[in-house]
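hiii so my PI (J.) wants the whole complex modelled not just the main chain, which honestly fair. so below is everything: two entries, each one labled with what it is. i double checked the lines twice but i was tired so who knows lol
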Amino acid sequence: EIVMTQSPATLSVSPGERATLSCRASQSISSDLAWYQQKPGQVPRLLIYEASTRAIGIPVRFSGSGSGTEFTLTINSLQSEDFAVYYCQHYNNWPLTFGGGTKVEIK
Amino acid sequence: QVQLVESGGGVVQPGRSLRLSCAASGFTFRSYTIHWVRQAPGKGLEWVAVISSDGSNKYYADSVKGRFTISRDNSKSTLYLQMSSLRGEDTAVYYCARETPDYGDHYLDYWGQGTLVTVSS
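here's the output for the full assembly
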């Protein structure tokens, strides 16, 4: 099983600033990585797939990068609606696994 | 629009069984691979199981293998999760989620609202 490790667990950011979230895979997963956003009381929403492709309707301030074992989600100019928990998920093989999440909170 | 509506959750005693359902609409259900993902209260996401569009391929997380069975009825556009020998650690919101139609990619583009399963005596 591939273990996905996200860091930091919590990130405090001021509105308008940039947030950089990390996700590491325990073995190479090529670019088979997705990012999801989950707000309190809501369902996860797909943000990024193939490590760097934005899903339909996702604002350009969200960007993903990386391949192999190291991945990054960058949120430029954080808006109030961006404060949430973010999860990475690999889909390189079975079983699928998610990272533990990074909570982006208001500083 | 794509809709996934889970049902069947509730409170169940340890060791008992429960069956969840996920009713799909707004897309051609029989053409899509569908997953179950769960989230324990205050915790992260955990992938549970997947079934291919025709039901011929199924995979499970080790934590549920041998206890949970995923199935589907394409004539009813409905997904199921039969859960047996339930444990306290199975307490979670269970989501069904549609897999992208992109061949070979297993990310989840639509999620249901979830149904809460509580395993407690």
